[in-house]
Write a structure and sequence with these properties.
The chain contains six helices and eight strands, in the order βββαβααβαββαβα. It is an alpha/beta fold and about 250 residues long. The protein has an eight-stranded mixed beta sheet, with helices on both faces. Helix 3 packs across helix 4.
């Protein structure tokens, strides 16, 4: 089933505050359709460059396709009110978003979506770049109903010191994954390389998890990013269809 034909741009979007890890109040961007029909929710995990206009546009895209969508600002604590690049730099200087904090923020965002009057009680998560790794983490520890990993690095590999992130591999959490996972990767990517994407798929299948991984030829990292040279329109269109089919299956009441 695809929801691409059901697009409706009647929506509302605004900056809000949600309760994140440890009860911290953090900034988030909420986009919702204007109708009051029961619908699934999507937690959007932004990339390492931050909580930017491109990410907010993605949230509006999900709302236009019938989902309540929220994107928590994972860098809010490091630089409240700062521009996305400044907040991302501050977060990177601190070693990146701690995994435990990330899980708490995703749980808080999920609860916010479930409390909306139009929620059907189902919540999925999608993440890009570093957010892809964090989507896998959410599938294992945040109790979501579905997860999409868009070229998330360092689920298996370890970041080079030059990247400056204090995170490690989390593939050992595969047995704890409780949600189906859609994986979208570029064959020309370096972080993660296609071999690691294939290995992750194999590990998940060995543990009996529901997975659907796609590795696209002619695409590298950030092939969804319309504002970057890495953008691959044809690949992105195929991947969007897979995303909406996947969420249509797993986030329906």
């Amino acid at each position: 089933m695809t929801t691409l034909a059901a697009r409706n741009e009647a929506l509302t979007a605004d900056t809000i505050t949600i309760s994140g890890h440890g009860g911290d109040e953090i900034e988030a961007y909420l986009a919702t359709p204007l109708d009051d029909q029961p619908k699934g929710g999507v937690v959007l995990i932004h990339h390492m460059p931050g909580y930017d206009w491109a990410t907010k546009e993605l949230a509006r895209r999900f709302a236009a396709h019938g989902y309540n969508a929220v994107c928590p600002n994972l860098h809010h604590r490091d630089a409240p009110g700062a521009e996305p690049d400044e907040a991302a730099a501050a977060s990177r200087a601190a070693g990146g978003v701690p995994d435990e904090q990330l899980v708490g923020d995703i749980v808080g965002a999920s609860e916010h979506l479930k409390e909306l009057a139009s929620s059907n009680g189902k919540v999925g998560v999608i993440g890009y770049c570093s957010g892809g790794r964090q989507a896998f983490l959410a599938a294992a520890e945040a109790g979501v109903d579905a997860a999409v990993d868009c070229y998330g690095p360092f689920v298996i590999g370890t970041p080079p010191e030059a990247i400056g992130l204090s995170i490690g591999p989390i593939v050992h959490l595969a047995p704890k994954v409780s949600a189906p996972i859609l994986g979208l990767f570029g064959a020309d990517d370096v972080y993660p390389p296609k071999e690691e994407a294939a290995e992750l798929e194999s590990v998940l299948k060995e543990h009996g998890k529901e997975v659907d991984f796609h590795i696209f030829d002619g695409a590298g990292h950030a092939f969804f990013a319309v504002d970057k040279p890495s953008y691959r329109p044809e690949v992105a269109e195929q991947a969007w269809a897979l995303i909406f089919n996947f969420f249509g299956k797993h986030l329906s009441a």
